[in-house]
Amino acid sequence: MSESKDELNKSISWGWLIVVLIMVLLLWSANYFILNDNSQKGVYGDMFGAVNALFSGFAFVGVIYAILLQRKELELQRIELAQTREELEGQKLEMRLQNKTLRKQAFENTFFQLLTLHTDITTSLKFNRSEGKEAFTELFHGLSNNWLVRGNVDELVKINLNYLEFYKVNSAYIGHYFRSLYNIFKFIDQSENEN
């Protein structure tokens, strides 16, 4: 709709320009027929000298007015540019917040998928005749029995030797579980989320 208004305004201004141009040409040609006598042409032309100066003055005023209008238009453009800049800053801030939210959602989605996978691994764990969490109880008893056998050795060395021997014997049962647990902790540690 605004395009048709613009076209209408352009056609109206072109129409007025054509009408004024035709009137000027008609007056100019009428002047030629009115003044057939060459001796009167000079006197008749001098009579319009003051009018010529008046129109030149009007033209000068029109130029000044056009400059003032252009100045005001430039001020309005500066204001609009500043408002656009402010709007873009607001959008930039909004985009940062959206990106932060999307990263948090992606983290949570991946974390819960890892947690679900870890729960599935825990549920599917089988050791001897036990399954799931009961298999951990049985594995714990094997680890604690091994702990008692070591005797009086430095605690850190005792823990390390006990675990290595326990893992060597039972890695087929618990390896997948501990790798999954390790990957969850690694994922949490490497995430950029604050909480």
Overview of the molecule:
This protein is an all-alpha fold. It has five helices and two strands, in the order H-H-H-E-E-H-H. Among the domains are: 33 residues; 92 residues. Helix 4 runs antiparallel to helix 5. The mean pLDDT is 81.
Low-confidence stretches: none
Mean pLDDT equals 81
Output the radius of gyration: 47 Å
Helix content: over 70%
Categorize the overall geometry: rod-shaped
Helix/strand-derived category reads mainly alpha
Work out the helix count: 5
Biggest sheet, open or closed, and with what strands and sense? Answer: 2 strands, antiparallel
Strand content: under 5%
Looking across the biggest beta sheet, what order are the strands in? 1-2
Compute the separation of the termini in Å.
53 Å
β-strand number: 2
State the order of secondary-structure elements, H for helix, E for strand.
HHHEEHH
What's a concise summary of this model?
With 195 residues, the protein is mainly α. The protein is built from 5 helices and 2 strands, in the order H-H-H-E-E-H-H. A hairpin with a 2-residue loop joins strand 1 and strand 2.
